[in-house]
Amino acid sequence: MNKTSIEVTAPAKLNLTFEVLGLLDDGYHEVRSLMTAIDLSDTLTFTFAPSSEPSINISIANNLGAIQKDSFPLGSDNLIAKAIRLYLSAIEKPVSLKVDVSIVKKIPIGAGMAGGSANAAATLLAMNQYFKSLSLSQLLDLAAKLGADVPFCLSGGLRVGTGRGDKLSDKLNSQNSIALVIAKPRNLSISTPWVYGAYDEYPEIFHLAEKLRDRYMSESLPCDFASQALAQGNLSEALKAFGNDFEQVVFPHYQELKDIKQTFIKLGAMGCHMTGSGPTIFAVTANREAAEQLKTDFYENYCQVNEIACATKYDPIDLWVASTIESGAQVLEVTCEG
Questions:
Q1: Which of 5, 77, 163, 284 is spaced 20 to 30 A from 307 at the CA atom?
Q2: Is 179 in contact with 286 (CB distance < 8 Å)?
Q3: How far apart are CA 225 and CA 242, in angstroms?
Q4: pLDDT reported for residue 26
Q5: Is the peptide bond before 50 cis (omega within 30 degrees of 0)?
Q6: What per-residue confidence (pLDDT) applies to 116?
Q7: Is 49 exposed, middle or buried (0-12, 13-18, 19+ CB in 10 A)?
Q8: Are 100 and 47 in contact (CB under 8 A)?
Q9: Is 67 helix (H, G, I), strand (E, B) or coil?
Q10: pLDDT of amino acid 303
Q11: Are strands 243-244 and 3-23 parallel, antiparallel or unpaired?
Q12: Which of 6, 80, 92 is nearest to 48 (CA)?
């Protein structure tokens, strides 16, 4: 039996700017966001083998905590399985296959960094590497059917997303990679529908565009202001437009997230914001070395202090140093046996 193994990387996504604009005709919220891929990524290995009885088997290769593991379905509801079935339905001559998928999971689950969407994008790429049946445009059409973030995770880079976040601009130029420290309370996840519902009921939102206009006298859209500054290599200027409309809604309910942000700022982060609907917080630094130092300082000044003071209640915070990257899902290696 011939086997083909395809290894694919699936980078996470961050929202550098995030605005909620209103409701679309289909009932979804209209958003506008400057999004970037980062080098915190899952690695998926797909093994394809012809079989008279088709099957999809998904497994986690690395150790996950109990709560994380319970939150990651391995059956037919997983976006990986859905992406495989969708791809097979879209090509003219699908064959009966046994597909084994092994995942080294680095993107935290329930973090608002599009980990599931990144896995789906990686799956579409692996399927197309095996079958070589669809164009990039056709793959992007399939990606949009799987979820609003999947097209971005397939293409990556720095882009503006509008509509539900699925209508993407061309890839934008950034002179330099942005160094980051990413923090997520390990056992905390926030329901995206709850955040949107709370946003709709919130009495008054000071929108990101208003902040930019009032504080910096700019009529530009936040995503445009930030991307133009990044294209000029001016991170400090770009940071004026970074931000998230949801913070005003989420922080009153999750004081810990506000504390994390304030601690990063006190420790010297150039900027710090929540990504998407949370709960992940990212801090911006001048370079990778500064990010490593900020991670150490944050651990010593926040994590250790809280761990000692609240040993029985403390929810560990996972920290990563990361950088923005220009690619989305990518094939790393193809191996054929037999």
A1: 284
A2: yes
A3: 9
A4: 83
A5: no
A6: 94
A7: middle
A8: yes
A9: helix
A10: 80
A11: parallel
A12: 6
Q: Two tokens at 71?
A: 């939150």
CA distance 190 to 147: 18
In terms of C-beta distances under 8 Å and separation of at least 24 residues, what long-range contacts does 212-219 make, across chains too? 212/240, 212/241, 215/240, 216/240
42, 149, 166, 245: the catalytic one is: 149
Q: What is residue 52's predicted lDDT score, i.e. its pLDDT? A: 87
pLDDT in the model for residue 67? 45
Express the helix, strand and coil content of the chain in percent, nearest 5 each: 35, 30, 35
Whether 13 sits among the annotated catalytic residues: the reply is: yes
Task: Report the alpha-carbon angle 289-292-294, nearest 5.
Answer: 110
Q: Which two tokens stand for residue 313?
A: 């209640």
Contact 112, 101 (CB under 8 A): no
SS3 72: coil
Neighbouring CB atoms inside 10 A of 144's CB total 18
- DSSP assignment of 60-109 equals E-S---HHHHHTS--STTSHHHHHHHHHHHHSSS---EEEEEEEE--SPT
CA–CA separation, 61 and 101 (whole Å):
10
| Angle ∠(258,263,267) on CA atoms, nearest 5 | 155
Query: pLDDT under 50 in the chain at which residues?
Result: 66-67, 311-312
| 182, 274 Cβ separation under 8 angstroms | no
Residue whose C-alpha is closest to residue 174's, from 154, 156, 152, 148: 156
Phi/psi at 165 (5° precision): 100, 0
Evaluate whether 216 touches 26 at the Cβ level (below 8 Å): no
The 10 Å Cβ neighbour count of residue 23 is 12
Q: What is the pLDDT of residues 22-66, one digit of tens each?
A: 888 888 899 999 999 999 999 999 999 999 889 999 999 887 654
Domains defined for the chain, CATH in brackets: 3-171+326-337 (3.30.230.10), 179-325 (3.30.70.890)
Distance CA 322, CA 284 (A): 10
